[in-house]
């Protein structure tokens, strides 16, 4: 029997943790170096609804989205903490020219007529993930297989080779510095949380001229969004933005009019010009025989692409 490969994953968000679990499933001994506790990662700020938001029409991205959709639906059926299937309504304002490029990834999309100002209504099933319990579950799953999560902030990727000869760089925004990649940039996102008045269906209006608008119910609250602000790197509260989100979401789903506001979430999506970087680095800057696999730049689609991307990361890291 071949000896197990030691792999260290740098980054404890959803991209890093799904890669770690997948690597372990392939027989690797895995250590995760996480700079933050799960509650402090940008993954926990995300609305975490399956949807290839602001992604390119790339066959690789489509494959990751399709594989992730299937895996999350399996997890929802198995009762994995935080994962549920959610019926989704997507309202369009532009002329409908057929199913979107990502439709085959979800498999059940249907189009219907809509009342003005909308041109069409798309219905499909989108898994929704509550990230706090989900990240805890991922860590527990890794630990059950003998993996480790260490609280450690890596200053240089080369230092990670002290832990294992194979390193996966899933550091999100920090990859801009750690991998010297000027294409990495923040995209500010602002969400408002309100009490759930009984909603069970997600609704989104990506074409609202006042800003992207979406309503995603969860067990005890509803996530209202949102904003997509490339290059904005601060997370300071903005009452005007929060009020505008509320107005748009109540107009879209009037049942929210009396829902108490529970709080706000502001985070920085780890985007990258040119799309996600998932590849072996030809110059890993480690000792002879070392391997560095990059897995960053997923923007706001980290959850949407996570499990499919993790499978490719495992192939690259283990030489598949």
Automatic annotation (TrEMBL):
First-level EC class: oxidoreductase
MF (Gene Ontology): D-amino-acid oxidase activity; FAD binding
Binding positions (FAD): 154, 171, 299-304
Reaction(s) catalysed (UniProt annotation): a D-alpha-amino acid + O2 + H2O = a 2-oxocarboxylate + H2O2 + NH4(+)
Domain of life (superkingdom): Bacteria
Every FAD dependent oxidoreductase domain range: 6-316
Keywords: FAD, Flavoprotein, Oxidoreductase
GO BP of this protein: D-amino acid catabolic process
Required cofactor(s): FAD
Enzyme Commission code: 1.4.3.3
Gene Ontology CC terms, in alphabetical order: cytoplasm
List of residues binding D-dopa: 214, 269, 300
Homology family: Belongs to the DAMOX/DASOX family.
Protein name: D-amino-acid oxidase
Upper lineage: Bacteria, Bacillati, Actinomycetota, Actinomycetes, Micromonosporales
């Amino acid at each position: 029997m071949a000896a197990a490969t030691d792999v260290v994953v740098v980054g404890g968000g959803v991209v890093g943790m799904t890669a770690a679990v997948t690597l372990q499933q392939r027989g690797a001994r895995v250590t995760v170096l996480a700079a933050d506790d799960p509650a402090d990662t940008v993954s926990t700020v995300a609305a975490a609804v399956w949807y290839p938001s602001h992604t390119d029409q790339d066959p690789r991205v489509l494959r990751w989205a399709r594989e992730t959709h299937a895996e999350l639906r399996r997890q929802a059926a198995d009762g994995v903490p935080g994962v549920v299937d959610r019926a989704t309504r997507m309202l369009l304002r532009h002329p409908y020219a057929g199913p979107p490029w990502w439709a085959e990834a979800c498999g059940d999309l249907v189009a219907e007529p809509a009342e003005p100002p909308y041109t069409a209504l798309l219905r499909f099933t989108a898994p929704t993930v509550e990230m706090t319990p989900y990240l805890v579950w991922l860590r527990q799953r890794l630990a059950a297989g003998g993996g480790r999560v260490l609280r450690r902030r890596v200053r240089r990727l080369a230092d990670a080779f002290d832990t294992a000869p194979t390193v996966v760089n899933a550091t999100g925004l920090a990859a801009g510095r750690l991998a010297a990649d000027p294409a990495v940039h923040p995209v500010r996102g602002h969400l408002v949380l309100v009490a759930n008045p009984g909603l069970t269906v997600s609704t989104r209006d990506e074409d609202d001229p006042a800003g992207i608008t979406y309503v995603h119910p969860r067990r005890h609250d509803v996530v209202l969004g949102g904003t997509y602000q490339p290059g904005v790197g601060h997370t300071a509260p903005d009452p005007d933005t929060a009020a505008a989100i509320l107005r748009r979401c109540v107009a879209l789903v009037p049942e929210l009019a009396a829902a108490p506001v529970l709080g706000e979430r502001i985070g920085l999506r780890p985007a990258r010009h040119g799309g996600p970087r998932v590849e072996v680095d030809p110059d890993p800057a480690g000792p002879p025989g070392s391997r560095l696999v990059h897995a960053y730049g997923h923007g706001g689609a980290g959850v949407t692409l996570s499990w499919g991307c993790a499978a490719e990361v495992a192939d690259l890291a283990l030489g598949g």
